[in-house]
Amino acid sequence: MNILILQGSPRAKGNTAWMAEEYKKAAEAAGHQVTVVNVSRLKIAGCLACEYCHGKGNGACVQKDDMQELYPLMAQAEVLVLAAPIYYFTLCAQIQAPIQRMYCVNAPANVKKMALLCSSYSPDVYDGATAEFRYICNYWNAENTGIVTAKNDEQKTEATKQKIIELVNKL
Ligand SMILES: Cc1cc2nc3c(=O)[nH]c(=O)nc-3n(C[C@H](O)[C@H](O)[C@H](O)COP(=O)(O)O)c2cc1C
Known about the structure:
Helix 1 (15-29) crosses helix 5 (158-169). The chain has helices at residues 15-29, 67-76, 93-100, 127-139, 158-169, and strands at residues 2-7, 33-38, 79-87, 90-91, 113-119, 143-150. Strand 3 (79-87) and strand 4 (90-91) form a beta hairpin. It contains five helices and six strands; from the N terminus they run βαβαββαβαβα. Helix content is 34%, strand content 22%. The relative contact order is 0.19. By secondary structure, the protein is an alpha/beta fold. The chain has one domain (2-169): Rossmann fold, CATH 3.40.50. The chain binds flavin mononucleotide. Flavin mononucleotide is lined by residues 9, 11, 14-17, 85-89, 119-122, 125.
């Protein structure tokens, strides 16, 4: 399958990037095609709610920022993986922005399955992120293949790697 991983942490060698990389390695080993985009390196503004896209824009966003390079990748993806550190008890803003900018097309055209990879310092801080993720899966009519979280003492461990491999095995 064609898999797109949106990696939201600005720390290129951090915990979330590691989780995204482990997912990529396992998915490629299983024969999938994987693209990882570090969305924290892109300039993606929040939605303006101007409704241009639902009128004159005919599905195109009025804002011509780096979201332009993500729209085609989102349109092609069959599996969408969100990889995000927890910032203030929810998905980091770098992941929220591209999701909310999908408003112009409502849903990614071909996404059938989704997964969530999340890292945090503390335990028990995932309720906001996981609730949002489940709502989005429902809204986009995509199967939730699962969620892997890694708090401080679970980061970059063999146990977390195995959980990520199990997620990939659900594709
Ligand atoms: C702005 C900011 C907010 C954070 N908020 C939380 C939080 O609410 N709960 C928590 O457990 N960790 C929080 N953290 C810690 C990160 O989630 C944690 O260090 C995570 O593993 C970082 O992932 P990374 O290495 O991929 O950047 C926060 C970190 C930053 C920079």
